[in-house]
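Cont'd.
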Amino acid sequence: MTEERQEIDRFRRTDRVTGLPNADEMRARGKERLLKAQEVGAGTVVLHVQIDRFSRINEAYTAAVGDQLLGQVAARIQGAVRGVDYVARGGSYHFVVVAAAPNAKVIGAQITSAIRMVMVEPFDLGNASGADTASVIDKVRLTCSFGLAWCPKDGDDFDQLMHKSGLALQAVIDKGGDACLDFGWEVTRRRDHSQSLVLEAQLREAVETQQLTLYYQPQVSLVDETVIGAEALVRWKHPERGIISPDEFIPIAEETQLIIPMGDWILDEACRQASEWRASGLPDLTMSVNLSPIQFRQPDLVARVRQALERHGLQGVDLELEITESVVINDVDNVAVTVNAIRSLGVSLAMDDFGTGYSALSYLTRLPFQKLKIDQSFIRDPNGNNWPIVRAVIQLARELGMQTIAEGVESREHASQLAGLGCDIGQGYLYSKPLPAADFVEWLVEQSRSSVQPQRFLVNEMS
Ligand code: C2E
Ligand code: MG
Ligand code: MG
């Protein structure tokens, strides 16, 4: 191709205002990326990002100001995603991000959170707003709405994923914007707008009337097969629908800030249960509790944790908090302050779903985490393509003085392989699914009885 043709071709594919690929180009490249990810068994998330009420900018100022702002937003979005992710201008005020990762759901959540963070700082209208208005308002704050769909959950065709993430975006816009929704239960039912409001109201009631309950999943040492801890996992006992999984209601709780009272209850209940088990003579287990990024950003988080420990007579070492990489990204310095304060209580910290997101490894050296939880998508990979990564993560953790927990251990074969690689702890259906408290105790007792039968937990012997 001649240089001139190349230039024309580039011009044809690029959006003039933002310098990003345009919508046509995005469709072609998006399909390619999805196929490539499918070839290596990875997931792909398609994310629509729309600037809320952007038309008011064009109305209040000039189209030139609007264009200049769009350029700034595009640059911030580009700066928030990983270098390997694809960002395009999808329409007037909206952008599309296509990202591949072993766990598409997690990377979708992390990208959303990273974009929300870079949008917080006001945008400079500069001189473009004109001399008169500039003195009144020269900075604007913008928020975005997000719609997500991902492969494999929502389909394996790019157009289908675009359509579904578009529907999710529309649902967010209908509810007033500045939120995020993935295509799923909430979206398919959104045709009845009141339905999602009903769910919100029900969730609010659920927190108040104790419809929430905690299940516990054991964490087992891969070295000597002893049970060393339990992860508390929340469930919603819905009066009509039965047990609802946290994947369905935690996003709504986060969207509505209900995660704050809910998170307080979870922390308190997990501590109460740990204390009750201790008092009844069960072996000492570390209780692991998941923290949402929103909880983590609460200014009084450390005081809440200290109070929960004190209320139930627990030591800091009895508790572990799990947070995901999206918490630390972009804000390592502030996070370090909170993490160090939590550490000073004696509470340990685990990095949950490690390897699915940014994996900006440099932060690990700056934050005193005790454990890395290797995401289950790496462990469950049927072709074993991810094992070199698992091995590298275990080595890295060791060098940094951290322990590793493998999530989603479903087979003895995986457990023995992990033990052979030096992974410290396993968690997964091989040992037990998450169980209600009473069943967990039964499982523990059964476990200790059968530990005289060596075939029960011969994880290491197989390595
Ligand atoms: P997570 O913290 O990574 O929890 C592990 C999830 O993997 C749990 O799903 C667990 O049931 C599931 N799991 C464990 N072993 C296996 C296995 O061998 N195979 C398979 N296929 N799955 C396994 P669950 O309980 O549905 O929780 C999903 C997510 O919801 C959690 O992921 C966590 O991000 C969130 N979550 C759960 N409880 C809480 C909570 O109390 N607070 C907050 N903020 N988030 C929570
Ligand atoms: Mg967890
Ligand atoms: Mg996890």
